[in-house]
Amino acid sequence: MACGGLKQGDVMLQTKLLMAVMAVVLLCASDAHATAILTVGNVPQSDENVLLNTGETGNPIFGTTNQTGLDVRFTGQERLAAPANGQARIDALDELFTYLLIDIPNGSFTSLILNPDATVNGTIDFTAITNTGVEVFNNVAVGGSGNNFFTFTTLHDQRFLSIALQADGALAFADVSQFRIGGAELTPVATVPDSASALSLMGLSLAGIAAARRRFARN
Predict the structure, then answer these.
(1) Structurally, how many domains does the chain consist of?
(2) Do 26 and 121 reside in the same domain of the chain?
(3) Could you write out the three-class secondary structure of the chain?
């Protein structure tokens, strides 16, 4: 039995092809957005401690993962310090700072735990850059006393390239401490198609299906 000049089997084949193409496009469009997750609290992953008791000062300064031995870079808007004594932490030479960016030079990671010591009750903004995009967490509440643990994770095998925190308003950081990083590696990070590429792929695929329909119709 024919349908619009096409055999029923041909129509079913084209329908399956279209559904497959749409599934790929939707998957690509979804994965083109970062899927970083911020959890309030200390939620251990497969993490390594970041060693910081070096006495180093400067901007940036470096720590080291305690198992893989990779450099972890800390960049601020002023000179920073990693005190040689006491808890592993990042300080500023003038005691207070408002911005800190954490990354692994030429590398990436899948989780991060940190504990900002805020001077007053207030909010901070986090910016997480992954291999597929940027995720921003604005106006995250922190207390001026006690712990302010935060845990970052990713989904779908995505990887962090960097995570930054910025104090809002009058808030500042006395220090940021207790860094733990998971999935640290220097392996190049693969990216997925962005939304424009996904739409182009859909257009080309639909054009191919239309051409196939015309060929079937002529037979």
Answers:
(1) 2
(2) no
(3) CEECCEEHHHHHHHHHHHHHHHHHHHHHHHHCCCCEEEEECCCCCCEEEEECCCCCEECCEEEEECCCCCEEEEECCCCEECCCCCCCEEEECCCCECEEEEECCCCEECEEEEEEEECCCEEEEEEEEECCEEEEEEEEEECCCCCCCEEEEECCCCCEEEEEEEECCCCCEEEEEEEEEECCECCCCCCCCCHHHHHHHHHHHHHHHHHHHHHHHHC
Do residues 63 and 26 both lie within one domain? no
Cβ-in-10-Å burial (0-12, 13-18, 19+) of 17 comes to middle
Q: Is residue 118 part of a domain?
A: yes
pTM for this model (two decimals) = 0.72
Q: What is the pLDDT of residues 123-164, one digit of tens each?
A: 999 999 999 999 999 999 999 987 899 999 998 889 999 999
pLDDT tens, position by position, 56-78: 999 999 999 999 999 999 999 99
CA-nearest of 177, 36, 166 to 109 is 36
**CA angle centred on 98, ends 150 and 72, rounded to 5°:** 60
> For position 75, what pLDDT does the model report?
98
